[in-house]
Specification:
With 765 residues, the protein is of the alpha+beta class. The protein has 25 helices and 17 strands.
């Protein structure tokens, strides 16, 4: 059967090559014969060899589908449609070879021969913390060992037919082969985990040399895991697995490349097809929201999330306080905490055994929360008043993330509509996908606490404010009148963002710069005084009202209009004594912007490590997932070309363009990065500035593109952004995956993440 399947793959290769190359005299008969052989031989292999069943059926079905599409393509008179269908048919064959050879590489591990399938006799093994229970064996300790001392045979795979009471069982394997006659220097070289629900994890591919004389299987981390061992077998064929989802995703990517390069509509400028642009934007938004929902489903618990029995500062404690008509929290600090010389010193609290509410504010003998009241007033308090229940963190984060993703797409669309109507839809699409991939929202999906509520809600209202700022027409065509209502909504949402996350206050300052730009636009249009008054009232009143309310809230708590209370928090540092050091701030600049990721041969292929730049002091690492935005999205490098792009701006607009652009692309993000040193490094903080910086980078990129001379130069540019898009998705997907898994964040869903990782693991199914 192995020879038949090899012949099937050879026939498939011939079919693929003959389909792609230019048609010659014997091409048609070659294609027909090779296709027939590939289908027939793969089906026979699937029927005769169970371990090839999944792969054999997949090869047969999709080879036939490709042949059918190539015949069907001839029915179309439209050259574009015919070309696309033929391209899809050929793409299926190439991806099919990738699926059969690379993604199922381990299935051929034993095919070179010399490996005899051998069930091992457990009764002859030396067992440690393993007892026999009928026909099976059961572990009874925190670690267990099964040792076979007289094998004397080649070992290519080991099948561990076992099941634990936990979702997975960790193992390590020691061996002695012909290169090393004892376990010395051959211990723990084989490690992994057997997942109860993932068939492929039960078979371990081994790369030993010659005959193995001794084999020791160590089952580890068994404190909360009792393992039942049914069988251990050497040299069983590694089961193939044809992933239709993986195949479909790769095919979609390949089809996108065709649309990007060949589709007439994708080649047209935005101005010629705004309906199509809206449709593409809507599709991308729907996909991103769906991905957010999928990730969030990992952490959702519907039975308790909508009636949370515990809650946190935002979801419960502030809700209870406000309902009671007070601004301090209802819980009272203990006398032991209040009697401390310095209650803000974490080590002193630990040494003296003093209980304190973690990451809460202690001021004047009362507990407060320095986290914003925006999400409390807008969501969690109304929910409790209406239902009598407490809403958990994650449903709220999911709501804010969904709104943010929707408005992010709408904002980019409106910006491009105003500034780059001549941009091809293909480049617009690639840019929008990169903004979504790099915006950082994916770090606030799977797990949520009050930290993520503040981050996601602040992100949400900042994006909403940006949308209405763009649509207020303070930038763009001089002919379009300013819309006071949109200016009001922009200021309203940006002000709300500050009540969610104080860091976003810098974007309110930036908005004021844009409001001034609106005044200058009215002046250039020689508007009447009433227009100025109406516009300024509309744009500034929300800042005054909501900002004033926030300041009064601050003063009522801490006696200062500008003090949000972080200095009095009971957390990692005594912030009342924390000192600023330039190098601590520099860590953020390096890791958020400049730190390059490293690449490996194993999924998720991307690794990152947080660099503290050799700081000889304490710096809090909330998440060790540092990779610079310059590498997450390569078009970020265009920001370095911003000064040179100004020459393409009309002279009378250069100064205000430079001021507005610098405020968004450099000044605000740099202030934000510099200011968060006190809280340490957290990957999710990217949400405060990443999409704004990347959007500005695209503005520079598109400005250069607009002034390129010659179609060839523009095509090279377009190919570069296509490559950058796939690199962006690849790098960010790897970093997000590594952020969530492995770890306690995905408890109960480890098998789902493991399957996803294996789906994209080349040479390892």
């Amino acid at each position: 059967m192995k020879i038949l399947f090899i012949l099937a793959l050879i026939a498939l290769t011939v079919f693929a090559v003959s389909s792609i190359i230019k048609e010659r005299r014997y091409t048609k008969i070659t294609r027909l014969v090779s296709c027939s052989l590939a289908v027939a031989l793969s089906l026979i292999s699937a029927i005769a060899a169970p371990y090839l069943r999944s792969l054999g059926i997949g090869v047969a079905v999709l080879t036939a589908a490709s042949f059918g599409l190539s015949i069907f393509a001839r029915q179309f008179k439209n050259d574009g449609i015919r070309s696309f269908v033929k391209y899809t048919a050929n793409a299926i064959l190439v991806i099919l070879l990738l699926e059969a050879v690379c993604f199922n590489f381990n299935s051929y591990h034993l095919w070179k021969g010399g490996y005899d399938e051998t069930p091992l006799d457990m009764s002859a093994a030396t067992l440690t913390n393993v007892t026999q229970n009928g026909n099976t064996y059961v572990t009874n300790g925190e670690q267990a060992t099964i040792e076979f001392e007289n094998l004397d045979q080649k070992v290519g795979t080991i099948r561990l037919d076992l099941k634990g009471t936990a979702y997975k069982t960790d193992y390590s394997i020691d061996f002695a082969d012909e290169t090393n006659a004892s376990y010395y220097l051959r211990t723990g070289l084989v490690t992994g985990s057997v997942f109860n629900d993932i068939k492929q994890t039960k078979t371990i591919v081994c790369d030993f040399s010659g005959k193995v004389s001794k084999l020791r299987i160590n089952l580890t981390e068994l404190k909360n895991n009792t393992v039942t061992i049914s069988d251990i077998t050497l040299n069983t064929d590694y089961p193939s697995h044809f992933s239709y989802l993986r195949f479909a995703l790769i095919l979609l990517g390949v089809m996108f490349v065709w649309a990007f390069k060949r589709s007439v509509n994708f080649r047209k400028p935005l101005s010629a097809q705004f309906k199509n642009v809206k449709a593409v934007t809507a599709i991308i938004v729907i996909v991103m929201v769906a991905l957010s929902l999928l990730l969030s489903s990992v952490g959702l618990h519907p039975k308790t999330d909508f009636n949370d029995p515990t809650g946190n500062q935002i979801t419960k404690e502030l809700v209870d306080a406000f309902e009671s008509g007070q601004i301090e929290l209802k819980d009272k600090p203990g006398s032991d905490l209040l009697s401390m010389e310095n209650p803000y010193d974490w080590s002193a609290r630990v040494e003296q055994g003093v209980n304190a509410k973690w990451d809460h504010v202690l001021y004047d003998g009362k507990y407060y929360s320095y986290y914003g009241v925006g999400p409390v007033i807008l969501l969690y308090l109304p929910y409790h008043l209406i239902t009598g229940r407490y809403l958990a963190s994650l449903p709220g984060v999911l709501l804010f993330n969904t709104l943010a993703l929707i408005f992010l797409g709408m904002t980019f669309y409106q910006l491009m509509k105003r500034l780059f109507k001549d941009l091809p839809l293909s480049m617009y699409t690639a840019a929008l996908i990169m903004i979504y991939a790099s915006c950082g929202v994916w770090y606030c999906t799977v797990m949520a606490n009050f930290y993520e509520i503040a981050q996601s809600s602040g992100f949400c209202f900042t994006v909403m404010g940006a949308y209405f700022l763009v649509t207020s027409n303070v930038i763009g065509s001089e002919k379009e009148p300013i819309k006071p209502l949109h200016a009001t909504l922009s200021s309203l949402f940006l002000a709300i963002a500050v009540t969610c996350r104080p860091t976003t206050a810098i974007w309110c300052v930036v908005a004021v710069v844009f409001i001034i730009a609106g005044v200058m636009k009215l002046r250039r249009g020689k508007s009447e005084r009433s227009a100025y008054v109406k516009y300024l009232c509309a744009a500034l009143i929300p800042f005054v009202v909501i900002g004033g309310a926030q300041m009064l809230y601050n003063h009522a708590r801490f006696g200062s209009f500008t003090d949000f209370g972080i200095a009095y928090s009971l957390t990692i540092n005594d912030f009342t004594h924390t000192e600023f050091h330039t190098q601590l701030s520099a860590i953020g600049f390096f890791d958020y912007l400049l730190a390059p990721p490293s690449f490996t041969g194993e999924f998720p292929y991307v690794k990152s490590t947080l660099s503290t730049l050799g700081v000889n002091g304490y710096y809090f690492e909330a998440t060790n997932n540092g990779a610079g935005l310059l590498y997450r999205a390569l078009p970020m490098f265009f920001l370095f070309g911003a000064p040179f792009a100004l020459k393409y701006v009309d002279k009378e607009k250069r100064t205000r363009t430079a001021i507005l652009f610098s405020a968004v692309a450099f000044v605000a993000p740099f202030i934000i990065i510099a200011s968060i040193w006190e809280s340490g490094y957290g990957t999710r903080y990217m949400m405060d500035f990443a999409w704004e910086m990347l959007t500005c980078a695209f503005l520079v990129m598109f400005l250069f593109y607009r002034h390129l001379k010659g179609k060839d130069a523009k095509r090279i540019y377009e190919h570069l952004i296509l490559i950058a898009m796939f690199a962006c998705v690849f790098i960010n997907m790897g970093l997000v995956f590594a952020y969530w898994y492995p770890g306690s964040y995905v408890a109960g869903h480890e098998a789902m993440f493991e399957r996803f990782g294996r789906m994209f693991s080349m040479f390892n199914t």
